[in-house]
Fold this protein.
Amino acid sequence: MPGTNLIVPVVLWGKHAPTHCVSSVYLSRDQKTLVTGCYDGQICIWQVDPESLKMTPRCLLVGHTAPVTCLSRASIIQDNNFIVSSSEAGEMCTWDLVDGKCRESVKLSQIHTNIQAYHMCNSEDLRLFCNGYYAEILIMDPFSLEILFSLSSKMNPDWISALHVLRPSSRKDDVVLAISITGTVKVWSLLGHENKQSEPIYENESKQIRCLNALSLNCCAYNQRTVLIVCAKYCQIYDAGDFSVLCSIQAPSGERWMSGDFLAPDRVLVCSTEGKGYLYKLPANSVPDHKGFHGPTVDHDSPVLFGILGHPDNKLLSCPPAMRFVITSAGGKQRRLLLRGDSAGVVSVWSVDDAAVPTANQMLTHAPIVVTSLDIAWAEMNPSPVGILDQLNHPEEQEIKLTASIYLLAANRLVVGREDGSIVIVNATHTYNCSYCTETTSS
């Protein structure tokens, strides 16, 4: 704005929605806000109706220069309106979801591939447990984005590929269970008074298992006796006591596993790179409450596929989607959902509760209960959104795409380059009004 030091960014999208190839997805516990990060570094905030789960895009946040790899909540308070994001460039941001402002940002040398928000003992708020392309586990404050302390490895130090933080029912301390890319399982015990001045914190236990490049690790919340570790070609159930393999599930032909979680002591959900969720019932030797737990494996004693969460059209994706299993609560009712954001910018939601109960001698495929995208939201707008240079487009002529732009502050002019080689110069505050003249040159 001429004559002031204030510059107000204004974006006019036009008739076409921006591309949004989803790389990460997050749903708040109260089911009111969905957040999707994309490979372009942008973050989209969606307003959600908790009852119908209808989603409306509300805000686009621009602050990352690389794909957004992780999205996490920032507070134990359910309606707290802050999230934390991280990117492949080591950037971390804390966002206010009400006004879209970035409240804090840092640039780290470490690149996170996973962030778990966890409420530690003796802590007033959440802590972020981060792992990625580095050998430690970093514990960070979600609001200051300060590294509070780190967990190191004495035995076989290597990148940590997956972790899970939990509080055993019979103990008052917190336990961090993790696995390195070379297949070393490690256990740390935390008492809650760890800080930057603490001595190096090394693992209490360490064991090598035959499991390379794990993608996710989850301890069963219902009994804390079994652990699900997911790799690309297979996922396995382990006994948490001695880390012996109880059963294994091979990835479907032409697909790779991405992540997984327990739905019950005897049921798991495993997600694939094709954007599907596979529901399995575990054999007796993998269920702690069963008398056959940890017993010898027989030929017929193997996981049984009883359901698939997928799209009926089975459309091929140009890259693996972002998938996340979430447990939410609205109106005092708990709900389990599977979220998917894909390369076309489509967000899909499945009700896991509707599909989690096996049907005798049947394998059912379940369609998503909600499907939406920016393109769908744009198509539903009436009137259509206003573009920067809509006044130059003749209704009967093919639209010319914009490829570059720059704002000249001193002249208050917007200069726009188009794919046909032309350059358009317009008054920046009147770009949408056809009564103002424009200057057009050819490159």
About this structure: The radius of gyration is 25 Å. The CA atoms of residues 393 and 399 lie 6 Å apart.
